Amino acid sequence: MDVIWEGIGQALRLILSGDPDLLQIVFLSLVVSGSATVLSIIVGIPYGTLLALNRFAGRSFMLGLVNTGMGMPPVVVGLVLSIFLWRSGPLGFLNMLYTPVAMVVAQFLIATPIVTGVSMAAIAQLDPKLRLQMLGLGASRLQLLWVLFQEARLPLLTAVMAGFGGVISEVGSVIMVGGNIKGQTRVLTTAIVTETSRGSFGLAMALGVILLALAFGANLLLTLLQQKGRPVR
Amino acid sequence: MTALLEMRDLLVILNGKPALDIKSLMVEKGETLAVIGPNGAGKSTLLKVLALLQKPSQGQLLLDGKPVRFSGNLLSQRRRLALVMQQPLLRGTTTFENVATGLRFRRVLGSEVRRRVEDWLGRLGISLLAARHAHTLSGGEAQRTSLARALVLQPDLLLLDEPFADLDPPTREDLMSEIRSILHETGTTAVFVTHDRDEALRLGDRLAVMMDGRVLQEGRPQEVLARPASQEVAAFVGTETVLPGVVRNEQQGLLDVEVAPEKHVAAVGRSTVGSQVLVCLRPEEVTLLEPHQEGHSSARNHFLGTVQEVSDLGLFLRVTLDCGFPIVAYATRISVSEMAIALGQPLVASFKATAVHLIPQ
C-alpha cells in the first residue's frame, strides 16, 4: 500500500515541480492521441452517419467490420502496422517506424472504428421521421445533416470521448510502432511500462495518476457539457 | 379555379406492391382537400409524393400545370411547401428557434426571421413560450410550435399529416378551429390527411376517400357523406345501415325498394324497376319513436321493430332495431331515459325518403 501513497506523493511533486521530462511525455501523449482522435472524427463521424442513414448492398459487411474494429486488440494493430512500416516492408520507404507519426497512424486505426460505431448509434437513435420533417420544411441535404448532427450532438460527443479514451490509455500499438524511445516516442503508457519493469514503482505510479487525471478530466468535461445540454424543467 | 397540384395516372410501387394508384386528383388554389381513409390506405405515401420526397413509379405530378421532374434538383420546389406531421418532431432548442427552422434553411435575414417568427408565435398563442426549451412543452404546445414552424414559411402548399391525432380532445378542438380560420384568412392551399371523418368534415372544403392506394370518391364533404359511391365508402364515412334490395316500383322519382320479404323502403332517386341496389342510411337521419307516436312524423318510412342492441358512444347511444332487417339509429341520453329504451322493447324507426341513398349494384 505504501507504494501507492508514495506514488501519489511523487506524482504531486513531479507535477508541481514542472519536471521537463514529465511535461514532454504528457505533451507527446496528448499530441499523438489528440491528433489520432481528430483524424478519426473526420473519417468516423461521416462514415458512421452514412451507415446509420442508408441501406445499401454490403452494409452488413461494413457493420461487421466496424464492430470487429471496435474490439480490435491494439497489439494486433501494432503488429500489422509494424510489418507494413518495417524497413523491408511495403511502406518501409517512408521511414516512419519509431516516429510519433507512426503512433498517430496506429491510434487512428484503433479510434476510427470506435468513433464510427458510436456515431452510427448516435445518428440511428434519432427518430427517422425527423429527416422527413426537416426535408418537408425545405432543408437541403447538407442542412439536413447539420440538423441531425446538432440533434445527436451529445451522443456524438460520447463517440469522440470514447475514441480519445480508447487511445490515450492503450499501450500495445504505440510501444510496437513507436519503440518507446526516451525523449522521442515515449508516452505516458509506455513510460509506465518501462518504469514498472525497472522496479521504480513510485515514478510509474506518478505517471499512472497523471494518466488517470487526464482520463478523468476528459470525462468530467463531457459530463459538464451533457449537463449543459439538458433542458431545465 | 386553377389547380395548384394535379396528379395524373400516378403509380407508386413499394416493396413490389402498388402503394398508390391515383387516376386523377387535383388540389385547387386556396382550398383544403381532406383525404380520409383507414390506416394503410396510402395516405402517407400520397403526402410523401406531394412533399416531393417520394418519386412516383409512373405517371405525373403537375405543380402549377408543369410536370415535376423527380430526377432533377427539387430544392426550390420543395421550398414552396411545408409539412406538419402527427408528432411535432421539434429540435432540441428553444420554441423560437424551432419556429425559425425553415426560415434559417432559406437563409432569411435575421431581422425578418424575428419579425415573422414573433408574428406566428402570437397567432398561435405561444409567444410566452418563445424562450422555452422545446422538450419542456406539453403535447398541445409542441404541436402549436410545429404548426407555427410550417405556417411561418407562408407555403404555397401546406401538408398536414394527422396533426391532431395525438392531442387530447379539448386541445384538439381548440387547435382545429384555430387552424381552420388561419387557413381561410391566409387563403393557404392545404392537403389534410386523417383517418378521422369528423376532423375531415370540419377542415375539408373537399373530401377524398382513399382505400388500398386508390381514391374511391371525392367531392364536397356533405355530398360524400350523404351519397357514398360504394359500400366501402359508405362503411367508412359512417353510413351504418346498408341493405341489399330490389327496386319494385317507380313513380315520379319515388322508388319502392324491397329490402326484406314484405318490407319496402321509400327512396328518392333514379333507378329502373327490377334493378339490384344497396340502400344506405345514416344513423343521424333516423328518428326513434314509441309505437303510439307513429302518426306524429311526416316521414314516409316507418318500421316497427324491437331493440336488439344498445351501445354507449359517450355523448349518445347507438341503437340497433330489428325490423325484419336491421336499422341503426342514434339516440341522445335524454330520449333514452324518456322512452326507457331497453332490449326487446318495441320502437318505430322513422326516416324521410330523401334520407335514403341508393348505390346501384
Structure explained in plain terms:
The complex is a heterodimer of chains A (233) and B (361). Chain A is mainly α. Chain A has 11 helices and no strands. Chain A has helices at 2-17, 20-53, 59-70, 74-85, 100-124, 128-135, 141-151, 153-168, 172-178, 188-198, 201-229. In chain A, 39% of the residues are buried. The model of chain A has no long low-confidence stretch (mean pLDDT 90). Chain B is built from 10 helices and 20 strands. Chain B has helices spanning 43-50, 75-78, 95-105, 110-123, 139-151, 169-186, 197-203, 221-226, 231-236, 333-339; strands spanning 3-14, 17-28, 32-36, 58-63, 66-67, 81-84, 157-161, 189-194, 206-211, 214-219, 241-251, 254-260, 263-268, 276-281, 287-289, 301-312, 316-322, 326-332, 346-351, 357-360. In chain B, helix 3 (95-105) crosses helix 4 and helix 4 packs across helix 5 (139-151). The mean pLDDT of chain B is 90. The A-B interface holds A 127, 129-130, 132-140, 143, 147, 150-151, 229, 231-233 and B 48, 51, 53, 75, 78-79, 81-83, 85, 87, 89, 91-92, 101-102, 105-106, 133, 135-136, 149-150, 153, 159.
